[in-house]
Structure formats: C-alpha cells, structure tokens
Structure to design on (236 residues):
C-alpha cells in the first residue's frame, strides 16, 4: 500500500508519500472519510476508476448509464485534468454562455478569460466527476488558475492524446491535490478522501445525495415547519 498527500505552492503544506499505510488525520472525517473503489481495468494497465459521467452544477455533461463510460486514469505523476473531447465540448459551451469573452483557441490546451479569476468564479458553476458510482465535485475557484498577465485559465481541458486514448479522463494533481489517495496493490483498489487542506473547497458524495441540495431541502423543510407553527399560533 502507498498513499499520497499532494499539494500546490499556495497550500502551505509539504507533499508526501507513505509506504505501508495512510495518514487518517490528513483526511476529512478520518478513516471513515476514505472511500475505496475497485481498480477499473483499462488498456493502459494503470490505476483507474470508471469515468461514468460529468456535471456542470447539476446539469449532466455526460449521462451516467446512457453515454459511454471511459477509464478515469489516476496519475500522480501528471498535472493534467483532461476529459474526453465530446464531454469537453459540452462544458465549454456552458462556460462560453456565461463568459462571452472566453478564448479556447489562442492557447492550444487551455481556455482562458482576460479577467480576474475572482470575477470569473462568480459566473460559473462547480464541476462534478462521477467515477465508480461516486461524484467528486470541484468548486470554480479550484479549477481556475491565475496567470501573471491578468488572465484566468481553466485547468480542465480536452484530452489531446491520439487514437482511442483521447477518450480518457486523465486525473492528475490538479484534481488529486484535493483528495488524499491510497493505492492497495494486494486488493487492487484505489481509495480517495477529501484532503484536510481542501475542506469546503471540494466535495464527494453518492449520486443524488449532493450536499448543497440536501442543505437547501432541509432549509426549505425547516421554513415550512416554521410557517405551519405560525399558522397554528394565528389560529390560537
């Protein structure tokens, strides 16, 4: 077993690997916050989950169970966060609808906007990756990158590998820095949990159990209950 806590310069932490176990104190919820998935077999023979779907907010960009699933390659040696071209085209259209000045042509890999990432983040939505029956959602601030030229770059981009390799989710440290990862060679499993330094920046949940929606539903239920109590008081 080997586990990784990956960071970036702005996180103020040192990245590390542990051999023979994992550090539960690095995971939101401790050991119970770590979810284990069977390694998804793929033609590259690498660690992977099953890339089942993708969401922009709550809108499906790839329909789980209906569209083709793709291997989601877990690559701790890569900075990439690449998605299949057909899926990328759908999410690019969503970005363009919110940001008329979106530029996805002058840079051969990354879309960008001539604006601050702080402004851009208020106009776009979280992105969710459904992999192996779990959704991993990243807020806009976590998939945007500020350059030195007042440009805001999107780190999610179209996979440009040749042949059938183009239809891959390539999950590198742009994703993994938010999720503590554990690789168990004996059981052939991959485990992921929200890293402590990314608490409240990302979320992971079962499909249909999105935390924001649950919170809104509870608030609505509480509001209805309060209205009913006020009606009872009026009656009395």
């Amino acid at each position: 077993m080997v586990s990784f806590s990956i960071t970036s310069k702005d996180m103020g932490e040192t990245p590390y690997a542990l051999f023979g176990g994992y550090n539960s104190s690095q995971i939101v919820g401790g050991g119970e916050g770590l979810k284990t998935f069977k390694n998804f077999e793929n033609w590259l023979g690498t660690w992977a989950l099953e890339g089942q779907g993708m969401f922009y907010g709550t809108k499906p960009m790839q329909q789980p169970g209906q569209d083709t699933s793709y291997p989601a390659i877990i690559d701790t040696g890569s900075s990439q966060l690449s998605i299949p071209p057909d899926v990328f085209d759908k999410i690019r259209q969503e970005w363009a609808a919110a940001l008329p000045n979106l530029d996805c042509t002058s840079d051969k890999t990354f879309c960008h906007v001539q604006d601050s990432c702080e402004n851009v983040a208020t106009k776009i939505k979280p992105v969710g990756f459904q992999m192996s029956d779990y959704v991993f959602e990243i807020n806009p601030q976590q998939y945007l990158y500020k350059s030195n030229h007042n440009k805001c770059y999107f780190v999610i981009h179209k996979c440009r590998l040749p042949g059938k390799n183009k239809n891959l989710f390539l999950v590198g440290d742009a994703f993994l820095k938010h999720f503590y990862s554990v690789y168990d060679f004996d059981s052939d499993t991959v485990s992921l949990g929200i890293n402590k330094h990314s608490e409240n920046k990302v979320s992971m949940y079962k499909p249909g159990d999105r935390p924001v929606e649950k919170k809104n539903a509870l608030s609505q239920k509480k509001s209805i209950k309060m209205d009913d109590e006020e009606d009872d008081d009026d009656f009395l």
The domain at 2-205 is CATH 2.40.70.10 (Cathepsin D, subunit A; domain 1). Confidence is low (pLDDT under 50) at residues 215-226. Helices lie at 85-98, 117-121, 140-143, 173-176, 211-235. The longest strand covers residues 48-56.
